[in-house]
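Hey, resending since the last one bounced:
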Amino acid sequence: MNAATQASSQPSLMSRLAASGAHQRLLAFASLIVLLVVFSVASPNFMQMSNMIAILQATSVNGVLAVAATIVIITGGIDLSVGTMMTFTAVIAGVILTYGGMPLPLGVLGAIATGALCGFCSGSFIARMKIPPFIATLGMMLILKGLSLVISGTKPIYFNGTPGFDQISRGSLIGNILPFLPIPNGVLILFIVAGAASYVLGRTVLGRYTFALGSNEEAVRLSGVNTGSWKVAIYTVSGAICGIAGILIASRLNSAQPALGQGYELEAIAAVVIGGTSLSGGRGTIIGTLIGALIMAVLTNGLRVLSVAQEWQTVVTGAIIIMAVYADMVRKKEV
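The structure tokens again:
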């Protein structure tokens, strides 16, 4: 019995999984609305246009990283290197554009290609060398963190000599047309990446095998599919998306900060789980991840507006991750 036949023989299970995912997305969206209302009441500064733009800017980077993490987590894997991979690709963009003096498109393509190469390496460690995803990506996280510091000389790389680079994230094409709606370009890029990822997951062979690997990898392998090659491809795509995140954060700061990045993977994974993607694989949506990323950005920004100390913000983030994982465990028991 191949993977497709096995999936079709369990319609009730699949429908229950879909219902559970929809319920989680609805709950996440309701939580987002509640947070917006609570912070708006607690501080009149929260709903100001400038603060809303800041939230969207933060969501653009974390959201793109969360999309990259979603693709991997649906397979039943994990990638702890997405944050430092983002930093590494930003540093590579800095080397190409600032040190090399190359045109802007080459810097962008170089960052994305570097992310894809890093993802390819992680996928190969996991699929070919049979190293558990947690260990393989933990090692990659440390490697990329060290390489970022070595290549940059432990100093930030500034993009002041690259005209238009800061506009990739901070500019506003929509604002030029509709001045009352200054949505940053970074948010548009997030929506484009999310739309493309959603299409790939729902309409392509790569997407079908992404879900199949997370649902029952052994059944997929026994049906004659080269699961290793597909797994490498999935991690490669995820790495390329991390390259886009690297461009976004470098553009937002107008610099590549080699010490930045570690810790971003936690917020990305939290956004993924809050959005209804199961850590055990086989279930998840990009729209749920976007809602989760917005929740994390609103929560962080709201606590900052209320002058909550940074250390307590970290405590809250950790507590949310634990609650999100516990909620995922409860959902699996119900199904």
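Residues 1-14 have pLDDT under 50 and may be disordered.

Sorry for the duplicate.
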